[in-house]
Structure formats: structure tokens, C-alpha cells
Specification:
- The model has no long low-confidence stretch (mean pLDDT 96).
- The chain contains 11 helices and 19 strands.
- With 339 residues, the protein is α/β, with parallel strands linked by helices.
- The protein is 30% helix and 27% strand.
Length: 339
């Protein structure tokens, strides 16, 4: 069957292309809601390094999305069932390295075509059913929650047992979701969110406290999660090293294109542990969907992050959605996908 794929061929330029799709034993999903993230914007605006763009493009963007099952030869899913699509595809097994850290794994929207397609073909292991009553515009960014879960699960496996106070640096989407899951998964810990924008911090109604970074020197934390990235990553990491207690764990989630200097002298003096976190595994998606079922109030908090839902049928509307995402002050732009 023919499938239409909408690829970014150069910064700010999408082009549709018809490709042959072999049915085989893959599950065919029709995307319905696609969520944009900063990684997509870096490709769209051309802010990645020129050699990276040259090696990746042309490529369909977006790795966060849900859709309806069109065809499933394995009979695992029903026709029309709402599912979340998993972007990571492991090409080997390793007893010591998780699938999302294997260099041989492929990832939709980063080296292989993402979900900006008429139909998406995936192995059944890369598709998970969602609760029937879920808000699809919120479920569209389940992948980002799975990344937050991955970081917290790794933290729980590596950090020492004194977890009275946890600090989250970053008042954006990642900081919001990490702190939300921390309060659900570790309810006995005090969670403090550190940020620069009082208006954004006001949305963190579920945490124990918020603090402007200018006042962070008055507080201390046992462990920290860095969710800033970008140009602010260096300052955030430096401040974390300053206020964290000895032998604390610093979980790094913020993505930046810049080299970040780190005060290794204080890392050594305090005996700190720095843990990098990227992407997620199937187990993280399953855990997040289980949270949806056990904590339906999560949807109310996720709705706060939906900045806009943009109907998309044409290439022009795709570009409009990306341009809106560039201008938004906070939250997620979700495409109601009907291309």
C-alpha cells in the first residue's frame, strides 16, 4: 500500500512523498494527535549543527503521538483502538545496557522517519493500548512522561536512601512532568521546584514548594533533577552543585547543543553522582499508562500543559503549528492530525 510521509527537507520546509508500505506482520496505525517538542523545533528551525542536519534530513519529524489501529495481523489490537506509538526501536539485546541507550537503536524523528505520516508501521511491541476514556490531546505526549519516569526509576535505583528533599530545576514542560511524577511515585519526599518565571511556577500546584533560582542559596536538597537544558543548563548545574548535600545524585535531563562547564572540584569534594537520562523504554510507557488508570487526576494536570490543539491537514498548517510552538510561552502544541 502507498503511504504519504511528510518530511522536513530543509529548515522550515516540509514536502510530502509517497512511499511503499509493506503490511507484513507490522501493526498499522493512523496517527490522530501528535505533540511537538523542542527536539522537533531544533530540526525545524535548523538550530542543529549543519553536519547533523545534512546527515538526518530529509526526515519526518515528531516522536510523541497517539493514533488508531487500522490493521493488525497479530490480532493484538482491535480496529480503531486508541494506542500510543513508541518511537524507540531496539535492534539488539544487551544484558547491561537498556534499549534507549544502545547506540544501535533507531528512534523515530531522529535518524528515521517520525510520526508525521498518513500511516505508521510498527512492531506490535512498539504499540500500547490506552484507556478508552483518556483525553487523546494529553495522551499525545505520553512519551515525554515516559522519559520522566525513566529518570525517576533510574534515580530510585542509584541514589542513596536519604530522600527527604528533592529539587527540580526547570519551570518548563520537563520540570513540570518530572515533579508531577515525583509526587506520585515518591509521595513522602518534599519536592521543591526551582525556576525563573513566577507565572510558570504558579502552575506547579501539586509540589510542596517553589523557589526562584535567585533565592536558591537559602535552601538545600538531598538530590536534584536538572530539567533546564539549552542556554540555562550551565547555570542550573552550577547552582545544583552548590546547594545539594554531599553524596547526592544529580539527574540530568536537559538537552543542550552547547558544551557545559562543570565545577568538578565540588563534585569531587561532595562525592556527587551525575546520572544522564535520555529517552525511555517500553517498561516506562507501561508504567505511565498504569499511572493513568490508578491516578485519573493526572489528566487534569496534563491539560494545564496543552497550550493549543491545532487542526492539521495541509503542509501549510504543519508549518503554522511549528511556528506557533516557537512563539508559545509554555506548554505543548498538539496537532490534531488529519493529513
Amino acid at each position: 500500500m502507498l503511504n504519504r510521509v511528510y518530511r522536513l527537507v530543509s529548515p522550515r520546509q516540509f514536502e510530502p512523498v509517497e512511499v511503499e508500505m509493506t503490511l507484513g506482520d507490522q501493526v498499522i496505525v493512523r496517527p490522530t494527535y501528535l505533540s511537538l517538542c523542542n527536539a522537533d523545533l531544533r530540526y525545524y528551525t535548523g538550530s542543529r549543527a549543519p553536519e547533523v542536519l545534512a546527515s538526518k534530513l530529509p526526515m519526518a519529524l515528531v516522536h510523541e503521538g497517539v493514533g488508531e489501529v487500522l490493521f493488525d495481523p497479530t490480532n493484538t489490537f482491535s480496529s480503531g483502538e486508541l494506542v500510543v506509538m513508541l518511537p524507540n526501536q531496539a535492534n539488539e539485546e544487551n544484558a547491561h545496557v537498556a534499549e534507549n541507550y544502545l547506540r544501535t537503536s533507531s528512534f523515530c524523528g531522529s535518524g528515521t522517519d517520525g510520526f508525521m505520516q498518513e500511516y505508521v508501521s510498527l512492531p506490535k511491541e512498539r504499540v500500547i493500548a490506552l484507556p478508552a476514556d483518556i483525553a487523546p490531546e494529553c495522551a499525545a505526549f505520553t512519551e515525554l512522561l515516559s522519559v520522566a519516569h525513566q529518570a525517576i526509576a533510574r534515580f530510585q535505583a542509584t541514589a542513596h536512601g536519604c530522600r527527604e528533599t528533592l529539587g527540580v530545576w526547570g519551570d518548563g514542560n520537563v520540570g513540570y512532568l518530572v515533579s508531577l511524577l515525583l509526587k506520585i511515585m515518591m509521595p513522602n519526599s518534599r519536592v521543591i521546584v526551582f525556576g525563573k518565571n513566577p507565572a510558570k511556577l504558579a502552575d506547579f500546584t501539586f509540589v510542596d514548594d517553589v523557589c526562584l533560582v535567585a533565592n536558591a542559596h537559602n535552601l538545600s536538597v538531598d538530590h536534584a533533577f536538572e530539567c533546564v537544558g539549552g542556554s540555562g543548563a550551565a547555570d542550573a548545574i552550577d547552582q545544583i552543585i552548590d546547594v545539594i548535600e554531599p553524596e547526592g545524585t544529580v539527574s540530568l535531563l536537559g538537552v543542550t547543543e552547547q558544551y557545559v562547564p562543570i565545577n568538578t572540584r565540588m563534585v569531587l569534594e561532595k562525592g556527587l553522582r551525575l546520572v544522564g537520562n535520555s529517552r525511555s523504554a517500553r517498561e516506562d510507557f507501561m508504567a505511565v499508562i498504569d499511572l493513568y488508570r490508578k491516578h485519573p487526576e493526572v489528566m487534569d494536570y496534563l491539560r494545564v500543559l496543552v497550550y493549543d490543539v491545532v487542526p492539521v491537514q495541509t503542509v501549510r498548517q504543519m508549518s503554522d503549528a511549528f511556528e506557533l510552538d516557537i512563539r508559545k510561552p509554555m506548554g505543548k502544541v498538539v496537532m490534531a492530525w488529519n493529513a
